[in-house]
Amino acid sequence: MATLSAKRLATSSTLSWDCNVIQGDYYDGESSAQLAATMQVAANGSVVVLGDQRQQLASFHLEQVKVSPRIGNTARYIDLPDGSRFETRENDAVDQWLTAFGRDRSNRFLNFLESHTKFVLLSVVIVAAFCWWMVEDGIPRAAEVVAYQLPASILDDSSKATLKLLDESFLGESELPPERQQALQELFAGYLPEHSEYQFRVLLRNGGRMGANAFALPDGTLVFTDQLVELVDSDQELLAVLGHEIGHVVERHSLRQTLQGSTVAVIAVLVAGDVSVFGDLFAALPTIIVSSSYSRDFERDADEFAFTFLKDHELSPKLFANVMRKMMLAHEAKSEGDEGEEHTHGDDPDESSWLDYLSSHPASQERIERAEAAAE
């Protein structure tokens, strides 16, 4: 057992005051030594800690100590002003002298709460409700705030990295005739926003396993696959898809989707304003875009943007309904074809994610009906 300082080991005269006595253990704060001890509290608030040989270990006034709150029957810690500590399980005795000196208000309240089952259950319900709110509303709202604070450099870097990965892993050069590509670029140029913080542009790619599809990158790059161009019956239907993808960009859906999966990063920006934490986070954006689709709410928002976009250009939202039907049938046909092969798309996570593209969106028929309703 470590040797205590001479001051603390000094033997005191016999104490004759009227006091409460609490049994416990004493730690000097300088070593791990544990001494059986008693704490005596006098009527005037003076406190003395005595060892098992009646030696005085510490002396102070009650106002100088910090007492841990009562939690069931667990040990209480009484931190003394000289850095030492007295530990006891005589919770009732501690509560009595705290009450006598008017220092028990918070302790009594906490003990009251934790000793009544109904309040414990209420606390559980409140915590559960808060967690649900954070997932359903809190984090999405915070992610939206942060997404619009991100500088253009992050949008550009994440978009370039995503496009590079997709070109290397999924996409190929467009195989449409050069004159067809030129005609499409001229068509799209007339409908892309001119005065915008984004540098909108349309790229044509052979979709390969991705099939008939289109997607938007955070910086305003919009990618259409050859298969989608060949699927539609008119270029106006491509404009419906264009409006939808522009909606994803201006609402920053890809960034918000990514941020919602990183609560720590969102809080770091909101509290400290430090966007450097997103360096590693958005390095994973290519994988996120490839392996998962937007949330149902984001898809509905982009649909509504497309309906307004079409109306603003004197086009009918029915165009969106038409292309949705074609894409739905194309993906269903591709899925049925793959089921007949020995190697199913379920063996390839990347392929599976694209074939299941529509399944994670709002019901396709619902989206078609909303587009038709918007045209009325």
UniProtKB/TrEMBL annotation:
Manner of cofactor binding, per the entry note: Binds 1 zinc ion per subunit.
Top-level lineage group: Bacteria
Keyword RNA-binding: no
Chain intervals for the UniProt region annotation (Disordered): 332-376
Entries under InterPro entries matching the protein: DUF7092, Mito/Outer_Membr_Metalloprot, Peptidase_M48
Annotated Peptidase M48 domain residues: 211-373
Membrane-crossing segments per the record: none
Bias-annotated ranges (Basic and acidic residues): 332-347, 364-376
CC cofactor: Zn(2+)
Record flagged with keyword Zinc: yes
Keywords: Hydrolase, Metal-binding, Metalloprotease, Protease, Zinc
DUF7092 domain residues: 22-100
Family per record: Belongs to the peptidase M48 family.
Name of this chain's protein: M48 family metallopeptidase
Organism (species): Corallincola platygyrae
